[in-house]
């Protein structure tokens, strides 16, 4: 596989044409995002962020809602297994921080295909029911009155959009059955929270978006207490203009609140040869992000639930963690030092269009 950066290095003339560095240096001006957002403006948070004064200042200025990035998932809450108390310490801290700062909390996430397999390995029937039902009831019950909403089920659709994912939950309760059961148990545990179904690539992969909406339709017909649609919006900046708007409009036809739940937009083109300049790539990113903000702002007011980014600063992003990070991607609205990226201006401009 040819690395794009290696290719650019080998073509000095092309690299010299790239004026992204000067564009990046020019200060970008963007208003505090929560002040222009037509709905609560959110970010994900890890408990450790509360100890970072620069993060806290940026969050106070820009956001009015928080989604725990991973400490409210099974991987943390049930990390000690079923014979130990659930761990609520870190998310309790996040909830206290939110309350002290007048921010709402969006719960994320109760049932996810990618987690909990270890907890139910070898179980079936009544034992399986006990683990599943107890987890949803205890966790949603613990945060009753403290969260505005929940991603009850996360990422139920396969990547190719062919149908429902096969997982430990679906093998016990059926493809739609585990989703129905999770929503019913969550509703019983916290009747006031708005209950969401959440997934990714819904705008990037139209086939997957359509399959997700077919699931929404089936669930509603079955009487499921599904009350909101979460579209993560980890955007592929290369999708054609209009595709994001089409998905948001299609999703809106159910009349349910819509949460743009995890927006980020990587500038990388993974492993593909790409001769575009960084400037062109940035224009694609801001174009698609602005389109999403416009489409969201165009929704009827009662359907604008919240608009959340998956991190404030580029360096906070899950896309910037690990060995493969080259330190260059800029998938979020703020730089490492908290200055606005072009993406912040694109969001504000879309909201104000
Ligand atoms: O950004 C999250 C990362 O810190 C966690 O390690 C990971 C596993 O819990 O989840 C990441 O967030 C994911 C989110 O929960 C669901 N949609 C995709 C997000 C990025 O992978």
Q: How confident overall, as mean pLDDT?
A: 93
Order of strands, main sheet, comes to 1-2-3-4-5-6-8-9
Radius of gyration: 21 Å
Would you tell me the structural class of the helices and strands?
A: alpha/beta
CATH C-level:
Alpha Beta
Oligomer: single chain
> How many domain units?
1
> In terms of per-residue confidence, which ranges show pLDDT below 50 for 5 or more consecutive residues?
1-23
Largest pleated sheet = 8 strands, parallel, barrel
Helix percent reads 40-55%
Heteromolecules bound? ligand 9MR
Query: What is the approximate shape?
Result: globular
CATH homologous superfamily caption: Glycosidases
Structure description:
The longest helix is centred in the C-terminal third of the chain and has 20 residues, at 278-297. This protein has 15 helices and nine strands. It is 41% helix and 14% strand. The chain has one domain (4-22, 30-351): Glycosidases (TIM Barrel, Alpha-Beta Barrel), CATH 3.20.20.80. It has 353 residues and is an alpha/beta fold. Helix 14 (278-297) links the parallel strand 8 (258-265) and strand 9 (304-309). It has an eight-stranded parallel beta barrel with strand order 1-2-3-4-5-6-8-9, surrounded by five helices. The protein binds ligand 9MR. Ligand 9MR binds next to loops.
